Amino acid sequence: MPIDKPIAPEPTANHDYDDAAVGSFSEAQPWVVDPDRLEWLNSTVELRARTRAQVPVLLRHRRIPPARRVLGTGFSLGVALLGWRIFDRRRGKVASRQGLSRRLRRSFEHLGPTYIKLGQIISSGEGIFPVELVDEFRLLRDHVPAEDFAIVQRTIEADLGGPLENFFADFDKRPVAAASIAQVYFATLLTGEPVAVKVQRSQVSDLVRRDLAAMSWITPHLIGRIPVAALANPPALVELFAETIVEELDFRLEAANMLDIAGVLAATDQRSIIVPRPHPNLVTRRVLVMERLTGFKWDDAVGMHRAGIDTTAVVRAALVSFLEGAMLHGVFHGDLHGGNLLVGDDGKVILLDYGITGRLSEAKRLGFLRLLMGGSMNDLPTQIQALIDLGALPVDTDIRGVIDDLGLEEPTKDPTQMRPEEILAEIQELTKALLGYGARLPKELMLFVKNMIFVDASLATLAPEIDLFAEITYLASYFMTRYGTQISADIGMEVSPNAIDLGGLKASLGVDGEIEHLSYRELKERRELIRKRMEQAQRHGK
Question: Cα(433)–Cα(518) distance, rounded to whole angstroms?
C-alpha cells in the first residue's frame, strides 16, 4: 500500500500567486507553495504530537534490556573501551583521548545508521565535546555507503504509488549525498523542473527504534566511564537525539519544518537566506521531493570571492537569521554545518536539511532572549536568571552566590599569559563549582550552542579579518533598534543601543577591557597558542 499516495505531478506554477508572503524562497519559482493546498501539511501538527509522544516510550526505564541489541552494542563499545585501556590509556592525555575517539568512531560505524547519526551530531559539537572526539567523528559525515539503488527505487515507488517514469522524466541513480538516515538524488519531473529527491533508507526506522531502546538502557551505565566533558550531560544528549531522529523518520515533518523556517525568514524579511520549496504533492513519510538549488560550498571562500560575493555579509546573514528565529519566534535550524549550507551565485545562503529543527517553549524563548540581551549589556544577574529559565541551573540557584563563587566580577586574567597548570586549575575549579550548583547543558541550549560554535568557526574561513567587537556591537544594536519595543516587553527590561557593554565578553575571552579591536584571526591565534601550551604540558606530564 502506498503511504499518503500522491498524484502524478502536474504543472503547478501559478504566476498570479506569489509565495514570497509565506516563505523566503528562490525567485525561480518552479512551483508555488500555497499552504492551504498542501494535503500532506494538514496532518503534520497531529503527526508531530504523536511522534513526540513516542520518545518517552522508547526511552522508558526497562528492568529487562532489549537483549540482542544491548549485547551487540555493549560488545562493540566494550571492545573499543578495552582496546583503549590496553593500548592508549597510558600514552599521555592527548594520545589517550585520540585513541579512545578513534576506537569509538570505528565502533559507531560498525553499529550502523543510528550510531552514525549520533556521531554526526557529536561531530558538530566543537566546544561541547573534546576536540579529539569531534575531529574523529567528522569522518562519519563522509563515510556512509549508499544503499543499492534497486532498494531505493522500491521505496520511492511504494511511497509515490507508481513506477518512477510516472513522476520523473529523468532520475540519476548516483546519489549526490548519502547519510545515515537517507540519500539524496537529482532528478527531473515530467513537467521539466529539476528537483532533489530525498529517500529514507529502507530498514532504518525499525533499527532506530531498537537502538534508542538499547541506548536508554546502556547510557546510564557509561556515565563516568568515558572521559567526555562533564557538563555535556550525556542523558540529555540521548534525549535530544531521540527527539530529533524520531522526527527525521517522517519526511512530512521535515517538509513542514522547511515551511516554518521559510516563514520565519519571510516574517523577519531575511531574503538573503532561502529555503528549497517542498513539492506540493510529492511528499510522503519516506520520500521528499524538493526544489533543486545549487551553489558554492560553505567553505569555498576563494570561489565566492572570485564571484564577487561578500563572504562577511554571508556569515552575518546566517547568524542574524538564526538568532531572529530563536529569540523572536522560538524556531531555528538545529543542525548548522558546512554540508547543510550552500551560497548561490547571487550571494544568498541556501539552507538545507531540516530534520533537526529547534522548537522552543515560550519560557525558553524568553530565556534565550534574556541570555543574549544580558550578555550584550554585561548584566550578570540577567544572564544567570536566563540560565535558570533554560534549565541549565536549578530553579533555586542563588544568583549572587554564583557570581561570587565563579569570580565573574573579578579582574580579567589573560590565558595567554598564564602557565598551563594555572589554566587547568582554573578550568577544574570552574567545572567543580558549576557541578556543585547542579549545572547541566539542556538539550535546547546544546543545539543553540552547537550552532553558535559552527558560526564562530565559519568566521575563520569567511571573515577572518572581521573586528569581533565591532560586529557584536552591530548585532546588538540591530536587535535593540529593530526589535527593542518587542524585546523590552518580552523580558521586562529596557534595552537600548546606549546600554551595550562588551566588558563581559572581553573578560570571557581573557582580553583586557581597554582593547577596542580584535579580529577573528587574532582570536584564533590566541586560542591556538593556548592549545599548544596545554598539549605540550600534557605530553610532559605537567
Answer: 30
